[in-house]
Specification:
Distance between the termini: 38 Å
Helix content: 40-55%
Shape: globular
Radius of gyration: 20 Å
Number of helices: 13
Low-confidence stretches: 364-382, 384-395
CATH class of the largest domain: Mainly Alpha
Number of strands: 11
Mean pLDDT: 91
Largest sheet: 7 strands, mixed
């Protein structure tokens, strides 16, 4: 087992990484001296596989767990589901000493964390991420929240977990598409913080796609260590933590414009990172060779590297980007890269340059994907020029 610590003074917490850790959930929670009652929030995909094991582990440690199952998918991050969770927690009579366990991917973690942050003015919560994306990114750092129709994560809070348990064995049941989506966040860490790590990903990508645990465990640990270091320096995203949003300005706009669930988060930010690399070449000196390496690695991972939309979609994407949390004084700002391993935040880009970027990465009649992965493309009707049927092309 590997341990990474997020250093936040009295609110510091460990991230445990390894196989078979779900069965240690109860014992690890007991060390935290939490109240006996707890709510496990999971979804309809993860719950049937792992909720019973989580309950058994917690009960064996003397806790009184109850499980709440929400729908799977990005649409579950809604105020309506928050209300459902509040009602259930009230019915179960959870108290201030009680705690919430988030058992699932990033959606469950964001939803459960927001419920924990706001119910009874704040309950302790434990993250048990079961997707690669959640293990390397969303479970760490305390950003929790839900979506509005207007945009992603517009309602949220900073609420740190007491513990993160990354059981790598749960990745064995992860659909291939979701594994690839998680790799988008993994690649991001190499771009923004560690050029040697990026080179290691280029070398070991086939092993990661095959879920070679000997290769995967140090990768998850390195991602968590990078994020822990950034969060420890800037918990509430007043400065450097913004680098973690590389590719997210356009990525979130794609998710909102296409409709939540059409793209997985990792798929959207894959396109967003290719766009950010293009802008970085224009504005912050990223070399053409590095842009090419970035695009090639996403493509090799089976992720989208082009925007399946024409110019008629650009106004909707620009409007969505103007709702991004990094917008200041009405100006869209980006996280960009100076070179592999070094990112800068708060970079302004003229609207005309953003349009040029969208045009440069767009392919209206096909998606540029890796050649061997053309069977599982999500539909993208809202990004088609007419915003209707448009380009629903297999990859």
């Amino acid at each position: 087992m590997r341990t990474v610590k997020v250093e936040l003074g009295e609110r510091s917490y460990p991230i445990l990484i390894g196989g078979g850790l779900l069965d240690r959930l109860g014992a690890e929670c007991r060390r935290l001296q939490l109240g006996r009652r707890c709510a496990i929030i999971t979804d309809r995909q993860v719950g049937p596989r792992y909720a019973a094991r989580a309950e058994k582990s917690l009960a064996a440690a003397g806790f009184e767990p109850a499980t709440l199952t929400v729908p799977a998918g990005e649409a579950a991050k809604s105020l309506r589901n928050v209300q459902t969770c509040y009602d259930r927690l009230a019915a179960w009579r959870l108290e201030r000493q009680s705690f919430v366990v988030a058992l699932g991917g990033g959606v469950v973690g964001d939803l459960a964390g927001f419920v924990a942050a706001t119910y009874l003015r704040g309950l302790a919560f434990v993250q048990v991420p079961t997707s690669l994306l959640a293990q390397v990114d969303s479970s760490v750092g305390g950003k929790v929240g839900v979506n509005l129709k207007a945009g992603k994560n517009l309602v949220g809070a900073f609420h740190q977990p007491r513990l993160v348990i990354c059981d790598l064995d749960t990745l064995r049941t992860l659909p291939a598409r979701e594994l690839r989506a998680g790799l988008a966040e993994v690649i991001k860490y190499g771009i923004i913080s560690d050029a040697r790590f990026f080179a290691r990903l280029e070398k070991n990508l086939p092993r990661l796609l095959e879920l070679d645990m000997a290769a995967l465990a140090p990768v998850v640990a390195r991602c968590c260590a990078i994020k822990a270091e950034v969060v420890g320096q800037d918990e509430t995203e007043s400065g450097r933590r913004a680098i973690l949003n590389f590719g997210h300005t356009l990525g979130h706009a794609i998710e909102a414009t296409a409709g939540y669930g059409k793209y997985l988060h990792g798929e959207a930010i894959s396109i967003g990172q290719v766009a950010a690399a293009w802008l970085s070449q224009q504005l912050t000196g990223l070399s053409a060779g590095e842009v090419s390496r970035i695009r090639a690695l996403f493509a090799r991972a089976g992720l989208p590297v082009a925007l399946p939309a024409g110019p008629r979609a650009y106004p909707r994407l620009l409007a969505a980007m103007r709702l991004d949390k990094k917008v200041s004084a009405g100006e869209i700002k980006f996280v960009l890269a100076r070179r592999l391993g070094e990112a800068v935040w708060g970079q302004k880009a003229p609207e005309e340059l953003i349009r040029q970027c969208l045009s440069a990465i767009s392919t209206p009649d096909k998606l540029l994907m890796s050649a061997g992965d053309r069977r599982h493309a999500p539909p993208h009707p809202a990004l088609s020029p007419q915003g209707g049927e448009g380009e629903r092309r297999p990859r």
